[in-house]
Amino acid sequence: MSNDVRQKQIPRPINTDRAPSHGRVLAPLKREERCPSDVEHRQIKYRNDVIECHHGKPKRIIGATLRFTSMKTAYATVKGIEVMRALREGRAASFYFGHPLGKMRPVSRVLEMQASVTRPEACPSSCLQQCPGNRMAVQVLVVKESAYGERRVAATPETVKRLGALGAQVHVEPGAGAAAGFVDAAYLAAGAQLADAASPAHADLVLCVQPLPVAALNQLKSAAGVVGILQPQADPARAEAMRARQLVAFPLERLPRSTRAQAMDVLSSQAGMAGYKATLIAAQLAPRFFPMLTTAAGTIRPSKVLIVGAGVAGLQAIATAKRLGAQVEGFDVRPETREQIESLGGRFLDLGVSAAGEGGYARQLTDVERAEQQQRLADHLKSIDVVVCTAAVPGRPAPKILSAAMVEGMKPGGVVVDLAAETGGNCELTRPGETIDHGGVLVAGPLDLASMGAVHASEMYARNVCNFVALFLKDGVIVYDWDDELLAKTRWTG
Questions:
Q1: Using the 8-state DSSP alphabet, how is residue 345 labeled?
Q2: Among 416, 419, 452, 421, which Cα is nearest to 436's?
Q3: CA separation (Å) from 206 to 138, 151, 211, 216?
Q4: Phi-psi region for residue 382, left (φ > 0), alpha (ψ -120 to 50) or beta?
Q5: Whether residue 171 has pLDDT greater than 70
Q6: Which pLDDT does position 183 carry in this prediction?
Q7: Which residues are catalytically annotated?
Q8: How many C-beta neighbours within 10 Å does residue 446 have?
Q9: Is CATH 1.25.40.10 what the domain over 269-452 is classified as, yes or no?
Q10: What is the pTM for the complete model shown?
Q11: Is CATH 3.40.50.720 what the domain over 138-254+454-490 is classified as, yes or no?
Q12: H/E element holding 206?
């Protein structure tokens, strides 16, 4: 039978008494439900088929339904139809495949579909507003990071599924997760779509890791939401672009420290990976074994490692150095960290200076306290083989703890790894992104340490972001509750 003859055939009506034969497109499913405004059912015609708008089913109250005998037939028939663009631009309701046995599957997974179905004129605006099914899914864009050396991604296939369950349609820029081991095919299998050049202009919410460039911010539509480590105060041009576009910006580094916020705390999750990697870098640079060894050539003493700062990164560094077999000490100006350090097998270094501050962070030391601390620390460093610096306060320059004189007093072959290099470093000699030799002591200032463990760092970051987005994305609608402390205190208003 020729193609022309097949196209002119009229689809047979569905016989509900028996399963229809496979391979034939059947007539649209007839429904008796009426919309809330009692408007008569409308029909949208394209090609030789009819799509029937209907109301009355939870979670798909209005939509266009085609009845097919098999998913294979459905995919072949819909290929080439411009449904997805109509959905994205708000010109059509959601489209579903209707299986003969009643199972519904969204057409949105068919990536080949493109352009031109329009919403029927017969549907008045009052009906469109009353029918939840007429609301377009929230468009979420996951960007491919453009910062040099950044390998993380703001969403994984796991969190794409979760965002879809919240009512979002996720668009992922091609190759966004490749450096972290998440290929495009994995995102497509999770229900995402690959973004195109027009995606930023249609996105209701943008997820990122590093701050977006000004050019990328200018492409976003007005009042779009942006979630990530945005650092707006670090770049006036970036801050101005956010204000000009009236973006609802949520710099996650501003998230309050509370029990409820722990599942969204990106600083803590990424600091854990950074502390782990910093210790491994120190072990690699050190010209000594970390553990004690008993060999035929005699006994090798373990390296003495000092971790400066006992936040999340510092505690992870202590745990990692201890697992490598080193003798580990931890130093922090907050006395309450003693128990945490000792619980990981480290020894708390008490220099007699306390600087406990608000929010779990250390306060600024006075000049007298700083002088006393540095003198005692300099004396102690003479016996230390490796120092890992992790002290940092979000939004502020890193405190200077190790002076050049202290480093010069260390043993030849000593190593200093400064995890805080991105914000100036805890050591006066730190050069961001470089490793230098100062009088026989190596001083390393690695950048973006969390990105070195991109797979697990991305998984943790993506879960943090998804948990935060769940605060305001529910049932396919974005609603910002500014009475919620986490939203109100995290939002950046300029």
A1: T
A2: 416
A3: 11, 18, 11, 11
A4: alpha
A5: yes
A6: 96
A7: 257, 262, 265, 268, 361
A8: 19
A9: no
A10: 0.71
A11: yes
A12: strand 205-207
